[in-house]
Design brief:
Layout (H helix, E strand, L loop, with lengths): L1 H12 L4 E7 L6 E7 L19 E4 L2 E4 L1 H13 L18 H6 L8 H18 L3 H9 L10 H9 E6 L6 H6 L2 H7 L2
Parallel strand pairs: 2-4
Antiparallel strand pairs: 1-2, 1-5, 3-4
Helix pairs in contact: 4-6
The structure holds zinc ion.
Amino acid sequence: MFNSLATSWFRLIGQPCFKVYGKARRENEWRVVEVYATSRRDGDSRWPAPLFRGTCITWTASVVAVGWDFAAMVLREQALSPASRDRPVEVVGGRFRDWRRRLAAAGSEQVSTSEVLAHECGHTWQARRLGFAYLPVGALFTLFREGSHWWNHFENQASEEGQFGGIVNNSVCSELIEKLGSDQRDVFIS
Ligand SMILES: [Zn+2]
């Protein structure tokens, strides 16, 4: 109930910049998650970090908010190597901040924006389970990030569980397409 009300509110204030398939590893069915871009979350925003500037946040089971610059980076990455529901992107080694785990998983130390989106998809699953309780929990624990303490569990779990199964066909908004280079534009206009 809370999730559907909150999601309707997001639809009132705007249009998603694109939609993605997302789920947790333990979920069987892919869900459609709407990604909203706002300049408050751009890397050069004057709004305070870490809740706004340069960060992504999952608001409900089907709404993630990101910066326009982040959204454009996701599309550039996806144009080069698209994720799909058969080959979803996951956080390498289930961690952003543990380079040993990342290298052991044959991944790179460098974090991609598609991995960050996979992590957010992990939060959408938490939001789905927790409903209204997700919001205060999410805002609080996101600040603690990953780590080995009990209060890091929430972030660790999102990194371990999240799967990003690609961008939904024809869901990229025109405003974002305009921000892309002409070589990438063709990929997302079909
Ligand atoms: Zn997180």
